[in-house]
Amino acid sequence: MSSSTEPLAIHFGAGNIGRGFIGPILVEAGYSVLFTDVNKDVIRAIHSNGAYDVHILDNKEVGKPLEDINVTHVDGILSTSPELIDRLAEDADIITTAVGPFVLAKIAPTIAKALQRRAEMGVRKPLNIIACENMVGATKQLQEHILGHLPGSSQSSSDLHDYISEHVGFANCSVDRIVPPQKASSNSDAVDLDVAVEPFHEWVIEETALKQPLPVPIRDAKLTSQLTAYIERKLYTLNCGHAITAYLGFLQSKSSTVDVSIANPRIRRVVEGAMKESGAALRRKHGFREEDHASYVQEILTRFANPNLKDDVARVGRGPLRKLGPADRLLGPIAMCREFGLKRDSLLMGVAAALRYNNPEDEESVKLQGMIRERGVEAYVEELVGKEDMGGVLKAYKELGPRLYLI
Ligand SMILES: NC(=O)c1ccc[n+]([C@@H]2O[C@H](COP(=O)([O-])OP(=O)(O)OC[C@H]3O[C@@H](n4cnc5c(N)ncnc54)[C@H](O)[C@@H]3O)[C@@H](O)[C@H]2O)c1
Ligand SMILES: O=P(O)(O)OC[C@@H](O)[C@@H](O)[C@H](O)[C@H](O)CO
């Protein structure tokens, strides 16, 4: 359990990346971490155990963790508990989230209420809010949702806005560690809080947006004034290649995993091709050195091949409509390639693979397939990628067919 003398981080979303990365890195830095989630069983277990293990799995010995880390100084509170508002208002030094991009709107009213209370109480210590979701500008989006829940125009609301600008930092970030779905506990009644993760980890935070001083620095996080370069590099390389590996892998077998999919030479060729294409655009836009970006891509391929992670292609492919968003991992790099007049055939194949993602267990996939049926694939593809690139996507879509037959 946490001691009240430590600075407090309140983290929304006690799921894979929350327990497997954000929680531990904050504890390691000296914060106590209060997880908040809608999942009653997980919250009850964190509250009563006050600790769990993170198993670091690399690709050496199958099944054997490289290292186990015991994470302590953690507690849990339900996200619907009225006490959460008090803790956010009075005690929090940092608020982090890893709930999924669409959930940011749902947690915003709670944070807005807490900020109002914090201002009324005159709490002067800085508060920093950092949304750790896979998207460009996640914290900015959360900030907009929060501001939308604050009272309208009056003297007191203008004082509140002044208080927030002075004391609350909203910092975007890029967060990178592959945390696969966790195995169910062998005892069906017990919640297993332990998390298996890969060794690689990188958390990059927009330094200029932080309200300083932090009570203790987050030792393992990198602070930068160039966040856009980091987040675009990560989303348009790792997440781009990951999504394509998942969609092509799913066409081979619905229960495939990322390591199995990337071991297929034909899939690897497309994935590596797509990451090189997005890399060419990223280098033009952000000035990364060619050899640095080439090793970044190779390191990512090695991470995908980790046989211990057993990362389901269905997890990595989840939410295809979100992943086909205009600034997301597939269309984002395509737009950049188009802007610089660069080749993008493998990326277009990636879009086609996403459009072939037909998983009845994924709500967005069901919606996507419905839209393709209703509008017709040509019209839908044109709407998605525009006239210039529709031919490339449609050709790849036909080539792929509903299943990937491998020679
Ligand atoms: N798993 C990864 O490898 C990884 C890596 C980097 C970033 N991310 C990003 O982190 C986010 C979470 O991913 P994840 O893999 O941990 O997913 P997850 O499903 O394991 O965790 C999400 C958690 O949020 C909780 N939640 C849902 N609604 C909530 C609400 N209203 N209030 C509080 N909690 C709520 C869920 O119960 C769940 O425990 C996503 O945006 C993802 O893109 C994931
Ligand atoms: O979380 P999503 O659905 O945006 O993307 C799925 C994976 O690509 C992602 O979770 C990666 O594992 C993670 O981004 C690695 O840092």
UniProtKB/TrEMBL annotation:
Short name of any one Pfam family annotated for the protein: Mannitol_dh
Domain Mannitol dehydrogenase N-terminal: 9-213
UniProt keywords, alphabetically: NAD, Oxidoreductase
Occurrences of domain Mannitol dehydrogenase C-terminal (ranges): 227-368
Superkingdom field: Eukaryota
Keyword Phosphoprotein: no
Assembly and binders: Monomer.
Protein family: Belongs to the mannitol dehydrogenase family.
Name under which the protein is recorded: Mannitol-1-phosphate 5-dehydrogenase
Species this chain originates from: Pterulicium gracile
